[in-house]
Structures are given as structure tokens and as C-alpha cells.
Amino acid sequence: MLEVKTSKLSNGELNRGVFAMRDFAKGELLHEAPVLPYLNEEHEHIEKTLLADYAFEYGANHTAFLLGYGMLFNHSYTPNATYSINFDNHTFDFYAYRDIQAGEEILINYNGDEDCDDPLWFYEEEQSGNKKE
């Protein structure tokens, strides 16, 4: 149903993204990404690594890495997908925010709200010339 391919949107070295292999209807479940949570106070160690850019907030006291395709979805301020945290199953559940056609890249808004256009950390770093290493 989903596959990882080269993305034209990703600015990273790996240029990966997640793409639909079939059509999805608005509201349809795309992926359930299992969670690897850790305590927020441990995040200071993660911030010293590239992994910090891939962490998600997971409740009030935890941060998490997502398995499966979870950490590979690219950002858009006009996303075609959304996600919700399923604490009972310890997953992030990704859904089609609108109809998605086969071959289309699956995009989420990293701000967590589909309509939020707040600047993201990596855009701020690019603009200031302080790109994170």
C-alpha cells in the first residue's frame, strides 16, 4: 500500500519519502507506526544527534521515535495526510486528510495541525545560515 522512494521535497542527503501505491479515500487509515518512547529529560542526549529531527512529542512526559514509515513522511503546509496518537496501541495512526492518488507522496504537517503554518526548526536554521549538522 505504501513504498519508500526518492522524494523531490526532501532536502536531506537521503531524499526519501513515502508514496501511495494505490488510491486512498479521505479518512482512510494509511499506516500504524509503532512507538519507541523515552522520557523527555533524556531528549538532551538525542538533541546532539541527527535523530532529534525525527522525534515526535508523545504525551506530556515522553518523546518518541516511530517505527515503520512513521519517521519517513515529509512535511508540507498543505498536507494530504494527518496523524493521531493512539496511546492504547502505542502507535501513531496516519490517515488520508484528503483523497490521495496512487504515486502521490504522503505528506504531513510537522506542526501537528494540518492548517498550522508556523515556521519549522529546519526552515529557521536554513534562513539564518545555521544549518544543523
TrEMBL record:
Coiled coil: none annotated. SUPFAM superfamilies: SET domain. The keyword NADP does not apply. Keywords: Methyltransferase, Transferase. The keyword Transferase applies. One of its GO terms (molecular function) is histone H3K37 methyltransferase activity. Pfam families: SET. GO terms for biological process: methylation. Residues 1-111 form the SET domain. It comes from the Bacteria. PROSITE patterns: SET. This is SET domain-containing protein-lysine N-methyltransferase.
